[in-house]
Design brief:
Blueprint lengths: L5 H17 L7 H22 L7 H12 L6 H5 L3 E7 L4 E5 L2 E5 L5 H15 L9 E5 L5 E5 L9 E5 L8 H7 L4 H12 L4 E5 L5 H9 L7 E5 L11 E5 L13 H9 L5 E4 L6 H9 L5 E6 L3 H10 L10 H11 L2 E7 L5 E12 L5 E8 L16
Parallel strand pairs: 7-11, 7-12, 8-9, 8-10, 10-11
Antiparallel strand pairs: 1-2, 1-6, 2-3, 4-5, 5-6, 12-13, 13-14
Helix pairs in contact: 1-2, 1-3, 2-3, 9-10, 10-12, 11-12
Protein name: Pilus assembly protein CpaF
InterPro entries: P-loop_NTPase, T2SS/T4SS_dom, T4SS_GSP_E_ATPase
GO molecular function: ATP hydrolysis activity
């Protein structure tokens, strides 16, 4: 088990005491915190030599451990720093798991209940969000773009449950996904063309299929556009010269101040977007997406689905949650006319993620069923692509 040894714990407490006395915030002045940690480690060794007691042999490692506990995320910091780890989850303080290389592993990290809660509070402090009995679930973003989800008792039996889905920048371009084998060169060219030319693209797939990673890579293909992204919690972590990222907000303790995805979509349309991006469509905001696309604003979004055709069916159904006056007979034709491509991602038994299907919506029949054309399937040869689709507008 990973435990902090006694000398390191003693020095770490001295560093904390000094930071409290000097009223220093580790997140604001990390260089000064490192300097203080180095001074306290040397001071400990000087005193140990004078007294003839044990010294800290590896001062650099000790400073690193202290910084992880004081200004980082303690025993989890090494896991967060590992670029090969995709996700970390804790089923209580003594059961810590990671996803690495497409496989799940239990790792030898042990915390106490108090340490687990302290870590969660520190993570949430950076995001400005909270979790308590009145709000037992929370989604938040960590400073590096990783996504945090926490569920606490009594919704969870026993200890707190924590999930951290890491931000992996090396997979955030289409070129990197081609090198990884997740996208074929022809399909990467198709998607790049679609994003540059103002076509609307929906990315579908199951949980952990790579939807958000692909969506971020697609955004990277339209750097000359004004992009407005809308998410419940910041997760896309993309950059562009003219990009505004919006996220929702929880209600306050008084039940006021909530900002929903539907509200954010409406606000985004007032911000002169060349492209509207919704991180994940899962509820009535699907109506606002369809309406936005039908005003001529190109879009991109993700949706949970089992296939590209299933994604279209789901996007035709979700708007009905917005109210009784919403009719599928209106939604289906509008959806078929405004979505240009549906790209389906999947993860195989070995954990490898890839694009397995691409469909082009064509039209909707009288019953509200959407007809589509299969452009690509992983078990078939990709269909020849010229300037693949007629550019919208």
């Amino acid at each position: 088990m990973l435990r902090v040894n006694q000398p390191t714990a003693v020095v770490a407490e001295r560093v904390r005491a000094r930071l409290r006395a000097e009223r220093r915030d580790p997140s604001v002045d990390p260089d000064e915190v490192r300097r203080i940690a180095q001074l306290e480690v040397r001071r400990h060794n000087d005193l140990a030599l004078a007294r003839g007691t044990a010294t800290i042999d590896d001062e650099a490692a000790c400073v690193r451990d202290i910084l992880a506990g004081v200004s980082g995320f303690g025993a989890l910091q090494a896991l967060l720093d590992d670029p090969e780890i995709e996700e970390i989850w804790l089923n209580g303080p003594e059961r810590v798991f990671i996803a690495k290389g497409g496989t799940t592993q239990c790792v030898p990290v042990q915390l106490t209940e108090a340490q687990l809660r302290d870590l969660v509070e520190r993570m949430l402090h950076t995001s400005g969000r909270r979790v308590d009995i009145s709000q037992p679930f929370v989604d938040a973003s960590l400073p590096d773009g990783s996504r945090l989800h926490v569920a606490i008792a009594d919704v969870v039996r026993g200890s707190w449950a924590v999930n951290i889905r890491k931000f992996l920048p090396r997979f955030r371009t289409l070129d990197s996904l081609v090198r990884q084998g997740a996208v074929t060169p022809d399909i990467a060219e198709l998607l790049s063309h679609a994003m540059r030319e103002g076509l609307s693209v929906v990315v579908s797939g199951a949980t952990h299929a790579g939807k958000t990673t692909l969506l971020a890579a697609l955004i990277g293909e339209c750097q000359d556009q004004r992009i407005i992204t809308v998410e419940e919690t910041f997760e896309l972590a993309v950059d562009a010269p003219d990009l505004v990222a919006l996220q929702g907000r929880q209600a306050s303790l008084e039940g006021t101040g909530e900002i929903t995805l539907r509200r954010l979509v409406k606000e985004a349309l007032r911000m002169r977007p060349d492209r509207l991006v919704i991180g994940e469509v899962r509820d009535a905001e699907a109506l606002d997406l369809v309406l936005a696309l039908n005003t001529g604003v190109p879009g991109a979004a993700t949706v949970h689905a089992n296939s590209a055709a299933d994604a279209l069916e789901k996007l035709a159904m979700l708007p009905l949650l917005a109210g009784r006056n919403i009719d599928r007979a209106f939604i289906a034709p509008a959806l078929a006319a405004s979505v240009d491509l549906v790209v389906h991602c999947a993860r195989d038994a070995a954990g490898r993620r890839q694009i397995v299907e691409v469909r082009e919506p064509l039209s909707a029949d009288a019953d509200g069923r959407i007809r589509s054309r299969l452009i690509y399937h992983v078990d078939e040869s990709p269909m020849p692509v010229d300037p693949f689709l007629e550019v919208a507008g």
